[in-house]
Amino acid sequence: MAVHEHPLENQETILATGVSFEDWLRDYDDTFTELENGVVIQMSPVRLRHSNLSQFFIMFFNAYLSERPIGVVQASPFAMKTGSKSGREPDIMVILHERLIHLTDTFMGSGADLCIEIVSPESVARDYGTKLGEYEAAGVNEYVIIDPQRKAATFYQRTDEGLFKPATEDREGNYAFAMLPDLKLPVAVLWRDPLPNLLEIVRLVEGQLGE
């Protein structure tokens, strides 16, 4: 099958079409891909800033969950099923205890409680558009988009009607996570270079939790 450009992302390529979620897991488990409505899309390599932000969130959430053991963190590459013919690898997932029944050794079988996507130049339409609707339909409770190029953070929280509603930071520039009680993200730290180290992150979280 010829490789050709994905219609939504001119810099990405299609590896196969008509693929189920199960076939994607089996046949593409060693590749950096996602599955969108049966289409296997080759993802672009992760850049340094992207990787550093991912590491920040892993440390940030683990610091919180070590004090409030209400769930676990998973980071890409780890698949999340969003439909019978769709699967994504969110940069960061937080899965609370109630949904751990859907977590297997190889994939998350439902929407995570919290998903974070870090935008790359190639993924703007996908992260802001396609995944918004897909994650909403999959039952994700909270979706956060971090865009380092634009130094912008966008937040969505699930309503009682099952729809994503935009959320905002408070006057001090802190975002309060809906799914993680008492935890706030000081958004401005995401644009620091270098990012906070582990000790700073632990102090930040402990300060919020009164530890």
Q: What can you see in these coordinates?
A:
There is one protein chain. Helix 2 packs parallel to helix 4. The protein has helices at residues 21-27, 48-67, 124-138, 198-209; strands at residues 4-5, 13-16, 33-36, 39-42, 71-75, 79-83, 86-88, 92-96, 107-108, 114-118, 142-147, 152-158, 164-167, 174-176, 184-186. The longest helix is centred in the first third of the chain and has 20 residues, at 48-67. It has a 6-stranded mixed beta sheet, sandwiched between helices. Strands 1-2-4-3 form a 4-stranded antiparallel beta sheet, with no helix packed on it. It is globular and about 50 Å long. The chain has 211 residues and is an alpha+beta fold. A hairpin with a 5-residue loop joins strand 12 and strand 13 (164-167). The chain has a single domain (46-209), classed as Alpha-Beta Complex (tt1808, chain A).
List keywords for this structure.
globular; four-stranded antiparallel beta sheet; six-stranded mixed beta sheet; alpha+beta; 211 residues; tt1808, chain A; disordered N terminus
Structure in a nutshell:
This protein is an alpha+beta fold and 211 residues long. The protein contains 4 helices and 15 strands. The protein has a single domain, classed as tt1808, chain A, CATH 3.90.1570.10.
Order of helices and strands: EEHEEHEEEEEEHEEEEEH
Largest sheet: 6 strands, mixed
Structural class, from secondary structure content? alpha+beta
Number of helices, counting only DSSP H or I runs of 4 residues or more? 4
Radius of gyration: 17 Å
CATH fold description: tt1808, chain A
Second-tier CATH architecture: Alpha-Beta Complex
The CATH class, by name, is: Alpha Beta
Portion in strands = 25-35%
The strand count comes to: 15
- The rounded distance between the terminal residues' Cα atoms is 57 Å
Q: What's the structural domain tally?
A: 1
Name the poorly predicted regions: 1-10
In CATH terms, the superfamily is tt1808, chain A
Q: Name the strands of the widest sheet in spatial order.
A: 5-8-10-11-12-13
Which word captures the global form? globular
**Average pLDDT figure:** 93
The percent of residues in helical segments reads: 25-40%
